[in-house]
From TrEMBL:
The keyword Ligase does not apply. Residues 23-273 form the EAL domain. The keyword Endoplasmic reticulum does not apply. This is EAL domain-containing protein. Keywords: Membrane, Transmembrane, Transmembrane helix.
């Protein structure tokens, strides 16, 4: 950190102070938005490569900001995680996703992202139970996406939570697979249903041999451990063809569809049934 000398420190001081102010403002605005429920859940289809059918949708939160319009989660989830606001926000998303999914055809699942903070909170299983009970969504139609960061701090606790969820028939997917530290050790230790291959590897599939080797290895590993695989961020036909050849189970990405508002899910399904 010394490389830049004195001026670098001064620059960082100012930048950090500005950053801190922006964060406090965002935290306050998030609080207001939570109270007023100014969020929306959008849904991105997950497409099965063998049956060529949609098997479910991932729930992705957006902030309906009164002045700035729709804001993506990348801008506020990290702050909400720092402040703890992710717990009420995540609960709201989970409940909304269950309420939306219960109206979909019964073979479709909904996948909901659980942040590490949420996953580690002592009430997580109760919150999930209540979301299912209140919506009437059967547990086997819910999938929860967790990242490695949710698992690293307290192995026993994480294992207990995973077992509690999976004993109800809820599925668990390990999100952003390949971007963490010690993925391989976790896979044996933690009961999971699915690996989501990070878009970073998928993006370079058609150009980069190393990415191909990594994706091939992940899919083989998943098969050996009897886990499903979803490839994220699939944008081209070439990527999809390659993933199908490698035995990947399903794909998600702009090639299939961008995330859509809840009201567009049924029309989308009707349209895709026609083709
Ligand atoms: P993620 O869980 O890895 O979700 C996938 C992200 O990739 C989404 O961004 C999605 O819109 C985007 N995406 C999908 N297909 C493509 C593609 O073909 N190309 C590209 N370039 N991107 C694609 P989004 O909706 O902005 O969400 C970003 C991240 O925010 C998510 O990454 C997830 O980590 C987090 N997030 C979103 N909703 C929630 C939530 O309800 N709770 C929590 N804890 N985190 C959430
Ligand atoms: Ca996800
Ligand atoms: Ca992901
Ligand atoms: Ca990601």
């Amino acid at each position: 950190a010394k490389a830049g000398g004195r001026n670098t420190y001064r620059f960082f001081d100012t930048a950090m102070a500005e950053n801190a102010r922006a964060r406090v403002r965002l935290q306050h605005e998030l609080g207001v938005a939570l109270a007023k429920e100014q969020f929306a859940v959008h849904y991105q289809p997950q497409y099965h490569l063998l049956t060529r059918e949609v098997i479910g949708f991932e729930a992705l939160v957006r902030w309906q900001h009164s002045e700035r319009g729709l804001i993506g989660p990348g801008e506020f989830i990290p702050v909400a995680e720092e402040t703890g606001q992710i717990v009420p926000l995540g609960t709201w998303v989970l409940r909304q996703a269950c309420r939306d999914a219960v109206h979909w055809p019964a073979h479709l699942r909904v996948s909901v992202n659980l942040s590490a903070v949420q996953f580690r909170s002592s009430s997580v299983v109760d919150v999930v139970d209540m979301a299912l009970a209140d919506s009437g969504l059967p547990p086997d139609r819910l999938e929860l996406e967790v990242t490695e960061s949710a698992l690293i701090e307290d192995h026993e606790g994480a294992q207990a939570t995973l077992m509690a969820l999976r004993s109800r028939g809820i599925r668990v997917a390990l999100d952003d697979f390949g971007t963490g530290y010690s993925s391989l050790a976790y896979l044996r230790r933690f009961p999971m249903d699915k690996l989501k291959i990070d878009g970073m590897f998928v993006r370079s599939l058609d150009s980069d041999q190393d990415a191909q080797a990594v994706v091939t290895a992940i899919i083989r590993l998943a098969k050996a451990l009897r886990l499903d695989t979803t490839a994220e961020g699939v944008e081209t036909k070439e990527q999809m063809v390659m993933l199908r050849a490698l035995g990947c189970d399903d794909v998600q990405g702009f090639l299939i569809s961008r995330p859509m508002p809840a009201g567009q899910v049924m029309p989308y399904l009707a349209r895709s049934a026609d083709v």
